[in-house]
């Protein structure tokens, strides 16, 4: 989801559409639709490709050292400075090249005429409310395959490729069918169960690793007048931020893959049943903050920061988004989801983390090599550290935090990733099938169960029906894990 879709003027993060922040795919606004139809029908020629440069140890992508570079950046919550700083490095390395840097909040409005004319920029940060639909761009062959970038030597250690330096799941997120990688997600979001370490300590409790321990902690909180959980009741597709990785922990990655693949009976797996029943137990035992089904994301987060509830499923953007109401001594922390028991397939610490802030190089870019080289610079340790220090967010680069004084939430997120190791899952429903995930599975399915209006069995049956309908819908482009 990144941290730029639906930003507010005050610098906070508008969250109505932020289910897409980790993957940031498929947000379709009215201007985006006009872009897609125009883009799909365009056969315009446009500008020619610049001549490639000579490949060398210092120029592994063969950048034309005197060719101009055209870079369009979404100017959202991350701001412009991190990108400007990376551009300065490009200009230092290629002093004959003139870089045109264009920050904008209107990606589609700015780029539609250029895509239609066949002369798109060389590098685009495709984010924000006017984000172009990735699935359609890929389907219409509008994007360049970034494999040459991934296979090039990294800035910091030529013995490692750029691919070798990335966090788990980043490469896979940029893929749709097969090996080509169409998108480089630059930011990195940690999803899980967020809480105040101070409040948890006040209960003389530790974060629960098994569900029996979770129920015990919630009961202890209830006796103190504190709800165990709250969530964005009006947008219950937030619940999967902790529920989906729990399903993966209990049943293994293959369960999540089957769900993503829209396989028959995928939702009927015992792990899904066990996890749905566990969450439903929170409802039946009165551990959900009263009135939660009527709260939006901001209201639920505010109640949580006020200490009315102990846990909330969310992503790492919450540190910035809830900053106005979060006490200075809140001591924000995140943990991987609690499991069922020792029979779970994956260890405690299994977490959902994935990329946001999608960068693309258009297939018709005049200087595609330059666009990829700019990304290679951004994926260096120095640029990554600059980004993290400036905007309090991790990047796709697997590191870049040494020597930085991390905020509590960021520090906790880094620790959670270290604990997870390779046990990082990345459900793809939210970027492959937006409507299915949000409105059907999220609102009509999980939302009704968490409101106490449907049982787990009824919910699973309903969701499987929705998934089967999507699988049979020929108007939907279908994707599968390779």
TrEMBL record:
Keyword Signal: yes
Localisation per UniProt entry: Cell envelope
InterPro entries, sorted: Bact_solute-bd_prot1 (IPR050490), Chitin_NgcE (IPR022386), SBP (IPR006059)
Main location: other
Bias (Basic and acidic residues): 49-58
A Pfam match: SBP_bac_1
The keyword Electron transport appears for this protein: no
Keyword field: Signal, Transport
Region Disordered, residue ranges: 41-62
Family statement: Belongs to the bacterial solute-binding protein 1 family.
NCBIfam families found in the cross-reference section: chitin_NgcE
Name of the protein: N-acetylglucosamine/diacetylchitobiose ABC transporter substrate-binding protein
Organism annotation: Streptomyces wedmorensis
Lineage: Bacteria, Bacillati, Actinomycetota, Actinomycetes, Kitasatosporales
């Amino acid at each position: 989801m990144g941290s730029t879709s639906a930003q507010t003027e005050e610098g906070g993060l508008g969250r109505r559409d932020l289910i897409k922040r980790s993957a940031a795919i498929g947000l379709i606004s009215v201007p985006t639709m006009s872009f897609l139809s125009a883009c799909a029908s365009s056969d315009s020629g446009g500008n020619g490709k610049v001549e490639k440069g000579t490949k060398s140890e210092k120029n592994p992508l063969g950048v034309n050292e005197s060719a101009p570079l055209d870079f369009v950046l979404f100017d959202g919550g991350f701001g412009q400075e991190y990108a400007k700083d990376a551009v300065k490095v490009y200009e230092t390395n290629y002093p004959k090249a003139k870089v045109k840097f264009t920050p904008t909040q209107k990606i589609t409005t700015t780029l539609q005429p250029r895509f239609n004319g066949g002369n798109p920029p060389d590098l685009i940060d495709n984010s924000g409310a006017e984000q172009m639909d990735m699935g359609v761009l890929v389907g219409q062959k509008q994007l360049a395959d970034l494999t040459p970038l991934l296979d090039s030597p990294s800035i910091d250690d030529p013995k490692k490729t750029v691919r070798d330096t990335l966090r788990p799941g980043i490469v896979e997120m940029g893929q749709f069918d097969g090996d080509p990688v169409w998108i480089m997600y630059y930011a990195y979001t940690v999803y899980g169960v967020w809480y105040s370490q101070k409040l948890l300590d006040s209960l003389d409790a530790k974060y629960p690793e098994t569900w029996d321990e979770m129920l015990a902690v919630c009961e202890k909180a209830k006796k103190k007048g504190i709800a165990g959980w709250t969530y964005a009741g009006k947008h219950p597709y937030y619940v999967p931020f902790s529920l989906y990785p729990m399903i993966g922990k209990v049943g293994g990655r293959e369960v999540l893959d089957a769900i993503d693949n829209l396989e028959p009976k995928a939702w009927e797996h015992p792990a899904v049943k066990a996890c749905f029943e566990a969450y439903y137990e929170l409802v039946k035992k009165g551990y959900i903050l009263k009135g939660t089904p009527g709260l939006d994301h901001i209201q639920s987060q505010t109640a949580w920061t006020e200490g009315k509830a102990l846990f909330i499923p969310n992503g790492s953007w919450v540190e910035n988004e809830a900053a106005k109401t979060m006490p200075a001594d809140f001591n924000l922390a995140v943990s991987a989801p609690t499991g069922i028991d020792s029979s779970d397939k994956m260890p405690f610490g299994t977490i959902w983390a994935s990329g946001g802030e999608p960068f693309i190089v258009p297939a018709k870019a005049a200087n595609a090599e330059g666009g990829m080289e700019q990304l290679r610079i951004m994926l260096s340790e120095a640029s990554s550290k600059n980004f993290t220090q400036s905007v309090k967010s991790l990047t796709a680069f697997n590191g870049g935090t040494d020597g930085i004084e991390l905020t509590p939430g960021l520090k906790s997120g880094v620790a959670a990733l270290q604990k997870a190791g390779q046990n990082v899952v990345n459900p793809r429903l939210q970027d492959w099938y937006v409507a299915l995930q949000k409105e059907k599975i999220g609102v009509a399915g999980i939302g009704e169960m968490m409101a106490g209006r449907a049982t787990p069995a009824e919910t699973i049956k309903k969701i499987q029906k929705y998934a089967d309908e999507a699988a049979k819908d020929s108007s939907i482009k279908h994707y599968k894990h390779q």
